[in-house]
Design a protein that fits this description.
alpha+beta
């Protein structure tokens, strides 16, 4: 399991690439049936999903999904479609919602 709280970098630039879905915090709380803040509940909820990670945008929205930046966690023979299918399956199970459709979220920035 990989947990990312916000964006982590050891330099002045950072990026991520996730197959996932973006949620507003209130919608995510409703799906998870909790009033506990996301930064407290998400580590507990995803602990059994080794491929799922999350990131906060800081504006009340969250992206949850499969972090494609950590290829060491995957069999290198997997196709992009297989990775997306894996993420879809795990996220649907995590949120108990079979209607979830994933997208590719990419962000990069330089702070300098």
């Amino acid at each position: 399991m990989k947990i990312r709280n916000g964006f982590v970098s050891n330099s002045s630039s950072s990026s991520f690439c996730i197959f996932g879905q973006m949620f507003e915090e209130n919608d995510l709380r409703q799906k998870l049936q909790t009033d506990i803040p996301m930064y407290e509940i998400l580590p507990q909820k995803i602990k059994d999903f080794k491929n799922i990670t999350y990131s906060s945008y800081g504006d009340g929205s969250w992206v949850i999904g499969l972090d494609l930046g950590d290829f060491n966690n995957f069999d290198e023979s997997l196709t992009i479609k297989q990775l997306k299918d894996l993420a879809t399956k795990e996220l649907r199970e995590l949120l108990n919602d079979q209607t979830i459709q994933l997208a590719l979220y990419q962000e990069a920035w330089y702070n300098g």
